[in-house]
Amino acid sequence: MSSRLKDEIAIVTGGADGIGRAIVEMFCAQGAKVCIADINEDLGQELARDLTAKGFDTFFSNVDVGNISQVNAMVEATNTRFGAPSILINNAGWIPMTAEPLDAEDDMWQRLFRCNLDGMWNCARAVIPQMKVANKGSIVNLGSVHSHQIVKGHFPYAVTKHAVVGLTRSLAVEYAKNKIRVNTLCPGMVETPTALKGWSETEDPEGLRQAVANLHPLQMNAVPKDMAYAAVFLASQEARFMTGQSLIIDGGRSILYHD
Fold first, then answer.
1. Amino acid 171: pLDDT
2. I need a surface site. Which of 17, 32, 151, 167 has the fewest CB within 10 A?
3. C-beta separation of 215 from 189 below 8 A
4. What is the SS3 assignment for 246?
């Protein structure tokens, strides 16, 4: 077992599946004690059982990050089980698709901000007081290439992801004096179970998968583990002089010209 995160106590929201699951698994492998926080109880409990059986210190907390009472209960459960969290990975999010901004209904707007932005702030404000006492901490907010570039058909998702960068930078400045680092991890196209399922429902799943890969200069898509490696770096002391930044991992796609 590696020890880049030895003695660290981490909360990973959206930790039951996709990028979050990969982060949970890698954090455990790197020596952290991990709270798997997710709204999907079946997947979360299954992952916690599997990792516990392998000897890792982890447990599952069923939480809707948009509900501050549930978030507070999740953090308290982490305190009881492991102690005060030193790492927060704000990964939980929702990605709807709309044809144009005027098609976005009020309910979609509210739900999206509740999950993608309010949820991150709920979790951050629940752990920051304890991080202040410890005079250390690392918060990693999951943004997106949509945090920096606009692609048609992703409103208001891109608005929320731009806001995540603002939240990151604001908290980084406000709590730097407490040695709390706050950064944004911005993935590009990742072959998550959700993405693979979406492609499988088309007439040519492999053709579509390759077409998406070809949009990147590296001619491939990422896998969840690619983001987990980056999350370990941002959460660890290897990034001790890095705060308020956005780490974009997108195979070079965001530097291309888009019309």
1. 98
2. 151
3. yes
4. strand
Q: Any idea where the domains of the chain sit in the sequence?
A: 9-190+223-255
Distance CA 17, CA 258 (A): 31
CA atoms 232, 236, 242, 244: torsion sign = positive
Place of tokens 């979790």: 123
- Tell me what pLDDT residue 226 has: 97
> Any idea which fold 9-190+223-255 has?
Rossmann fold (3.40.50)
Q: And the tokens for 183?
A: 């950064």
Report the distance separating Cα 26 and Cα 43, nearest Å: 17
Buried b (16+ CB within 10 A) or exposed e, 59-84: bbbbbbbbbbebbeebbebbeeebee
Residues with a catalytic annotation lie at 157
Q: From residue 6, give the alpha-carbon distance in Å to each of 3, 61, 134, 165, 213.
A: 5, 22, 16, 28, 36
Q: Looking at residue 99, what is its pLDDT?
A: 63
Tokens of 251: 């195979």
User: What are the distances in angstroms from CA 126 to CA 1, 39, 78, 159, 184?
Assistant: 30, 18, 11, 24, 18
- Alpha carbon 114 to its chain centroid, in Å, reads 15
How far does Cα 56 stand from its chain's mean position? 21
Q: Which residues pair with 249 in a beta bridge?
A: 187
The answer to whether 185 touches 148, Cβ cutoff 8 Å, is no
Q: Which residues of the chain have pLDDT under 70?
A: 1, 97-99, 257-259
- pLDDT for 258 equals 63
Half-sphere exposure of 172 (CA within 13 A, CB side): 20
